[in-house]
Amino acid sequence: MPDDNRVFIFDTTLRDGEQSPGATMTREEKVRMARQLETLGVDIIEAGFPAASEGDFQAVSAIAAAVKTPIVAALCRALAADIDRGFEAIKKAERRRIHTFLATSELHMVHKLGKTPTQVLDMAEAAVRHAASKGVEVQFSAEDASRSDPAFLVAVCERVIAAGATILNIPDTVGYAQPAEFADLIRHLRATVRGAEAVTFAVHCHNDLGLAVANTLAALHAGARQAEVTLSGIGERAGNASLEQVVMGLNTRPNYYNLTTGIVTEELFPSCRRLSGIIGQPIPPYAPIMGRNAFAHESGIHQHGILKDRRTYEIMTAENIGRKGAVVVLGKHSGRHALDAKVKELGYTITDDELLVVFDAVKQLADRKQRILDEDIEALILEKVLRRPDRYALQYLSVHCGNVELAPFAVVEMQVEGETKRHYSAGSGPVDAVFNAVCQAVGRKPDLEEYQINAITGGTDAQGEVTVRIRDGAATTVGRGVHDDVIMASTLAFINALNRLAKKEEERICPQPQL
C-alpha cells in the first residue's frame, strides 16, 4: 500500500514549462535537464507532447532512454493516434506513463471541442481504455476542471477509472480557482467518485491570479497526492506552480501538512540555476527561495536578529536548498584536477576534451578577473561546452564609443553558415552599433523586445550575463551571453537568440496543449 502522506512530484518543466515564451529547449538541453530532474528526485518527468512534432517525439524518446528512476510521461490528446505516438516515444523508459486529457467545462466543450457532454464522456473512456491496453500507467486530466460542473466532473472521473486510469488530474487550467474552493473540489471528488480510494488525485495549477502554489498546497492538504509543477514556475502565460515553492512549503510546515516528498532539497538551487542557464532567463532577484535577495538582510533590526539567531528572520537555510556562499576555489594557478573536482561538485558531467575547453576559458578569465567563483565556472560550462552548435558564430569584434563627436560604431567578423562575413555599422550606442553590424552579417533584422544585464557575482570584475528577447514576424526567442566585457556578452546573447530563432524555423511545431 502506498504511503498516504507521500506526495508525488510530477515535473512538467520540459513540456508545459517549455511553452513559456522564449523557453524553447533543444533535444540535448532537454536531456541534460531531465538528468538534473532525476538527481533532484522528481517522481515523474513529463517529457513532452510527442504528437506535436518530430522534434518533440525525438526529445521524449531521448529522455526515456536517458533516465532510470523517474516515471517518464508522454502527454497525448484523447485520440488513438496521439496515444500510439506517445507510447512509441516512451517505450524505452524503464517506467512509463501515458497522460491523456480532454476538456470537461461547458465553455470548452461547446466553443473549443464542439462536443456534447455524452460525446466527451465516450471520448475520455475510449482514450483511457486504449492507453491502458498498452500496459502502462494511465493518467487522465480533465482540462479546465476548476470551471467544470462538479456533477459532470464526477461522471467523467468514474468513467475513466472504470476504463483503467489510476491517476486523475484536476487542473486549474486558467488560474481561476481560489485555494479554499479548490480544496473543497478535491474533497468533494474524493468523497463522491466511485473508486476514488483506488486512484491518486493530482492537481495542475496555473498562476494567472498568483495562486498556483497556494491552490496546489490547499489541494494537497485536502487529499491530493500528486503535484504537477515546474522549476521556477515557468509555463504558459503567468506560469505554473513552482516546484521549489511547493516542496519547501511542505518541508517548512511539516506539522501543518504532515506530508513528505522524495525531493533532494539541496538540489533545488542547482536545478533552477541549470534551467536559467539553458533557457537564458535569469532568476528574478525577489523570487521566493531562489532569488538572490531571498536570504539577504539589509535592515539593521533584521541584521541584529540574524546575528543572534538566524531563525529570527529565516524560516529555512540557504544550505538546505543547495545555495552556497561564494567561496574562491580557483584562480590562474589552479590545476586541471582542481577544476575537474569543482565541475563534478557543481553537478556537471563533461568529457576530458570539454574539460580542457573550460580549463582554457578559466585561465583566460583569471587573467582579467581576480577571483573565480562557482557561478563563474558554471557560466563558462554553459557557454563554452553545453551550448549547441551555432549557425552563426562571432570571430572578431571591435567597438568604438565615447563622448566624442564620432558616433559609436562596431566592426564584426562572423561565420554565417560556413561563410566569413565582415561588416561595419554605426549606432546610437555601442550595443546598438554591434547589433546593427550583426544583423547586416546574418541578413536579418529582428526587433529587440527586451534587454537585461546582470552581474553573475559581485565586484567590478564580475562576468556580465546578458539576456535578450527578439522578435522576427510572429516568432520570438530568447538569447543569453556571458562575458566579463558587457559589450561582448551583449553580442553573444544577440547571436545566441538569432541561432535559436534559426533552430525554431527548422522545426515544424504544432500548437501545444494547455491543461
Helical element count?
17
Query: Could you tell me the strand content as a percent range?
Result: 15-25%
Say which CATH homologous superfamily of the largest domain is assigned.
Aldolase class I
Largest sheet at a glance? 8 strands, parallel, barrel
List keywords for this structure.
515 residues; alpha/beta; TIM Barrel; Double Stranded RNA Binding Domain; 3 domains; eight-stranded parallel beta barrel; three-stranded antiparallel β-sheet; 17 helices; globular
Please tell me about this protein's structure.
With 515 residues, the chain is α/β, with parallel strands linked by helices. It folds into three domains: 272 residues, TIM Barrel (Alpha-Beta Barrel), CATH 3.20.20; 49 residues; 115 residues, Alpha-isopropylmalate synthase LeuA, regulatory domain (Double Stranded RNA Binding Domain, 2-Layer Sandwich). Helices cover 40% and strands 19% of the residues. The protein contains 17 helices and 14 strands. The strands form three sheets. It has an eight-stranded parallel beta barrel, surrounded by eight helices. Strands 9-10-11 form a three-stranded antiparallel sheet. Helix 3 links the parallel strand 3 and strand 4. The chain is globular, with a radius of gyration of 25 Å. The relative contact order is 0.09.
